[in-house]
Amino acid sequence: MSTTDRDEMSGAETTGHEWDGIKELNLPAPRWWLIVFLLTVIWGVGYMVVYPAWPTLSGEGNRGGTPGTAGWSSYSELSDSQQEIMTRRAAYLADFREASYDDILADPGLFEFARAGGGAAFKDNCATCHGTGGAGAPGYPNLNDDAWIWGGTHADIEASIAYGIRSAHGETRVSQMPAFGDLLSAEEISAVTGHVLSLGGGDSSTPLGAQIFSEQCALCHGEAGHGNRDLGAPNLADAIWLYGGTAGEISTQIRSPRHGQMPAWSGRLDADTIRQLTIFVHSLGGGEGAEDSGGSAR
Amino acid sequence: MSAQSEPLVLFAKAARVYPKRVWGRFRKLKWGAMVALLGVYYLAPFLRWDRGPHVPDQAILIDMPARRAYFFMFEIWPQEVYILTGLLVFSAIALFFVTSLFGRVWCGYACPQTVWTDLFVWVERLVQGDRTKRMRLAKAPWSLEKLGKLTLTHMLWLVIGLFTGGAWVLYFNDAPTLIEQALDGAIPWSVGVWILALTFSTYFMAGFARENVCTYYCPYSRFQSAMFDRDSLVIGYDTARGEPRGKHKAGDSWDERGDCIDCHQCVDVCPMGIDIRDGLQMQCIACGLCIDACDSIMDKVDRPRGLVRYDTTANQDARAEGRPEPSTLVRGRTLYYAAILAVVGGLILVGLLGRTEHSLHVLHDRNPLFVTLADGTVRNGYEVNILNKTHGDADYQLRVEGLPGAEMRLRTAGQEHSGDISVFANSVGHFRLFITAPKGRTDRHDFDIVLSDADGQVIDRYTTKFVTGDGR
Q1: Partner residue facing B368 (CB), from A108, A144, A146
Q2: Residue that is last in its domain, among A35, A54, A72
Q3: pTM, entire model
Q4: How many domains does chain A have?
Q5: Cα B46 vs. chain centroid, distance in angstroms?
Q6: pLDDT tens digits, residue range A15-37?
Q7: Which residues in A lie closer than 8 A to residue B374 (C-beta atoms)?
Q8: Is B101 helix (H, G, I), strand (E, B) or coil?
């Protein structure tokens, strides 16, 4: 039994196992391979000591596990890299905090810093409702255009973002349009719908419609339907509709109005980010100068 | 051990080649080529070329961070990399052309693999001695002397490698500044990584891989057979004259025998480790060292030189049959390679000479494609880039053509501009352009954005589109 059996063809040693006349050659893994394998095992053991490796049942939050002697964790790595970003931002941030919106517009470096930061924050926080390009959707205003419900100066935009619209914040922008389905007859609603449609140019107005409008609606939307930014009542004479501009969509809004809601971002985002967002939204193309708005929100 | 217990081996390990020292015409040529080529490689980054302020003054510089490449009076921007592509095509065809004229001279004299291997072999010989000594040292058991010699050889190789990598990075950085940084031990890590990578690749390629690179890695040595014909210049052993070979003692007769005295010199000096007397082989890099070796032997035994020489297959056959040698340099193959070369060269020249110094690029916004404004008009947004490739600040005017009644708003950073703008020297100006078309225009519309200089002279125009909701 102890004599080694050799394969005739290759001359290699066999294991002595035989199946249907076929013998298994004994070809052990090369020595270097074995050594490398053992080294990786040693490395693996060392790794488990140095780095976090084993889950434990206890531990702070969901971070339970052996901490490893090197003290490394992906949490600390993340916070380190965030720290690094913060220090890089800090170079601009000090100037940015000092600067007024006008100063920022006049300083290309600060402006690009603000716009880039705002653009990134917009994609993270705002794109879900306003779209990645800020073009909006029915019920969510397009931020690229020059029609503003609450105002398009830097101050107006900052207030909209910081306090939200019909949000839980104490200083939120808020207003409510009555549900005229309970107050007006179907006939009256269709008449006033006709008048609304005529505001942007058109001949669908009737004396009844005009009368109801000036009695019921002008208070908020203005005699000529140009809206009122302090009340968040949109301009009904322009080409832009939040909820759609067909007779059906308009009469639905009159009968049982919808009210857009946006959360307040102060508290969720820091003041710098909100100012960056303001610069970004303002730069999309519809931003107004202080003189355009007829008064600022703050 | 019985024959049957020999393990079955299907792989032959390449034998190490120990080229012997040789002296002669072609060896001199090779030394000359090496000195010239390495000289250019190591010194070129230090050449200066004044381009004025704001622009680097290094004659040959590829400035990656700034996306510029400089070559003496030429300068290219990323938009012009096709010129580099052209240069690569030109080089490839030039290689084919030279191959059709003179065979593998590139391989034998100018290829970096050949030049550095030659240099490394020279170092090896300097430290360890000539062929037989090196072979003996390789076989000898380990001793202090062997260890010392091998260590010295490898140290010298690494130093050469370090300088190779060190010179390489000079083409991508301002050379004097980088050297100053290196002396202070403060080179950027990216540069350090490149230096190390090239140090070790040089060390490996020229120290170990050597002739195997030509035989196994290099695609060119494989596909050059497509460029070879019977008129290609190759190194040939004159079989008719040389055979039958055999040892020859001084005073013996040369009758009834060939001129080859089978001294093996041509094999010993060959950096590829082949025997040229076996005929043309893929490995042969046509360096001519075997010619030098054979000529020196022929001189000694007082036979005419040229038993091994640069020759064409057609000439060899013709001589054997006593016909005149037919091969000439002007052939169909050389002519059409020359023609292609001229065309590609011409195109590159046209590209370089017709290069614009100012240009305009416009990108239409994709999101949103268009914006409806309160008054019902439609606005489109564009990113406008103006490339000022000159070395001075430049003033421009921008206007819209082919969109009557359109209103234009132009911004850089936070500032609104009229159409009058300026862009700094050697840089790209980024502008945001809003165009609002008059009411009632509802179709998609192609139009031009026109760039002119401060005097209104049109420099460039860019055709782009105006998109509305209905007619896209």
Answers
A1: A144
A2: A72
A3: 0.77
A4: 2
A5: 20
A6: 888 888 888 888 888 999 999 99
A7: 145-147, 235, 238-240
A8: helix
Looking at the partner chain, which of A112, A145, A146 has a beta carbon nearest the beta carbon of B413? A112
Asked whether the beta carbons of B403 and B423 are under 8 A apart, the reply is: no
DSSP state of A235: P
d(CA A140, CA B178): 55
SS3 B44: helix
Pair (A160, A231) in one structural domain: yes
Say if residue A64 is in the same domain as residue A178: no
Domains present along chain B, CATH in parentheses: 14-355 (no CATH), 358-467 (2.60.40.10)
- For the record, the structure tokens of B89 come out as 């095509």
Give dist(CA B291, CA B22) in Å, integer.
10
A281 and A189 housed in the same domain: yes
- Nearest chain A residue to B4 by CA distance is A11
Copy the structure tokens of residue B461: 């125009």
What are the two backbone dihedrals, phi and then psi, of residue A166, each rounded to the nearest 5 degrees? Answer: 50, 40
| Within a domain: A78 | no
CA distances from B172 to A108, B42, B58, B181, B461 (A): 30, 13, 10, 14, 34
Mean pLDDT score across all residues of chain B: 89
Task: Report helix, strand or coil for B120.
Answer: helix
- Interface contact A285, partner B, CB < 8 A: yes
- Would you list the DSSP string of A33-99? HHHHHHHHHHHHHHHHHHS-----S-SSTT--S---TT---HHHHHHHHHHHHHHHHHHHHHHHHH-
Give residues 90 to 109 of A whose Cβ lies within 8 Å of B: 104-108
Q: Are residues A271 and A132 in the same domain?
A: yes
Q: Do A138 and A57 share a domain, yes or no?
A: no
Classify residue A253: in a domain, yes or no. Answer: yes
Structure-block tokens of residue A2: 């102890």
Using CB atoms, pick whichever of A131, A133, A239 lies closest to residue B376. A239
Angle at which helices B144-170 and B112-128 cross, to 10°? 150
Closest alpha carbon within chain B to A285:
B434
Record: contact A238-B375, CB cut-off 8 A = yes
Amino acid letter, residue B373? L
Same domain, A51 and A139: no
Using a CB-CB distance cutoff of 8 angstroms, which residues of chain B are in contact with residue A9?
8
| Assigned token pair, A115 | 């716009």
Which residue of A8, A105, A286 is in closest CB contact with B414? A105
For A151-175, what is each residue's pLDDT tens digit? 999 999 999 999 999 999 999 999 9
Nearest-CA distance B297 → chain A (Å): 47
B380 forms beta bridges with B435
Interface test with B, best of A123, A145, A293 (most B CBs within 10 A): A145
Is A288 buried (19+), middle (13-18) or exposed (0-12) by CB count in 10 A?
Answer: middle
Q: Are residues A45 and A134 in the same domain?
A: no
State pLDDT tens for residues B74-112. Answer: 889 998 889 999 999 999 999 999 988 888 999 999 999
Is A26 within the bounds of a domain? yes
Look up tokens 């936070």; give the residue. B414
Task: List the CATH number of the domain containing A206.
Answer: 1.10.760.10
The predicted pLDDT at position B441 comes to 62
- Residue A227 forms part of a structural domain: yes
* Whole-number Å distance between alpha carbons of A168 and A201: 38
Q: Which of A72, A93, A110 is a domain's end point?
A: A72
Question: Could you report how far apart the first and last alpha carbons of chain B are, in Å?
Answer: 86
Cβ separation of B367 and A142 shorter than 8 Å? no
pLDDT-derived band at B6, boundaries 50, 70, 90: low
Which pLDDT does position B319 carry in this prediction? 83
Cα of A104 to nearest chain B Cα, Å = 7
Same-domain status, A144 and A272: yes
* Residue with token string 């064409």: B312
Taking residue A273's Cβ as centre, other Cβ atoms within 10 Å add up to 21
Domain hosting residue A8, numbered range: 1-72
